[in-house]
Amino acid sequence: MKDIEKIFQQAFEKHADELFRHASLRLSDRDRALELTQECFLRTLAYASRGEEIREIRPFLFRTLRHLIIDEYRRAKSFSLDEMTEGEDGEQMDSLLKDETDELEQAFARFDGARALGMIRRLPDLYREVLMMRYVDDLSISEIAACIEESENVVSVRLHRGLKKLRALLESE
Q1: CA-to-CA distance for 99 and 102, rounded, in angstroms?
Q2: Contact 140, 108 (CB under 8 A)
Q3: Is 55 helix (H, G, I), strand (E, B) or coil?
Q4: Among residues 116, 13, 2, which one has the least CA distance to residue 57?
Q5: How far apart (Å, rounded) are the C-alpha atoms in residues 85 and 45?
Q6: Which residue range(s) make up the domain with 67?
Q7: Is residue 61 one of the residues assigned to a domain?
Q8: Which residues contact 68 (CB under 8 A, 6 or more apart)?
Q9: Is residue 43 part of a domain?
Q10: CB 92 within 8 A of CB 27
């Protein structure tokens, strides 16, 4: 049991921030995103404590968090998915992109990043999810495939089509 606790402590230290960021981008409530991130670790720990095998911890944690977020969407059916991913006045996205420096180049990069994230919200969830996992959470294609329980080919196609749709949206503005 001590080994499992040590492994999970290391996993928490290594992956908690990126899991929280992912949940924050998908949900409009920062506190609820934090709760779901914690619940993700608790459920994963309970799963491992029962003696179940976890081959790769990072994709397993993202898949668990994804399921918790889907459950959250189902509980709040009265809201659209787009409303749930938006913060108040874009506040959540802006706070994730803010930087303490005032260099012009970094300001342009933050602006372009904010613009791209805003456009990602307009994509269908099918594409939005894989794009966020790949380019915000920095998951590999195989890790994304494990998270969403699809083949790597399906993930690659969704990424390609999502980028194509995102490019079209960005060029139209």
Answers
A1: 8
A2: no
A3: coil
A4: 13
A5: 27
A6: 1-80
A7: yes
A8: 36, 39, 40, 43
A9: yes
A10: no
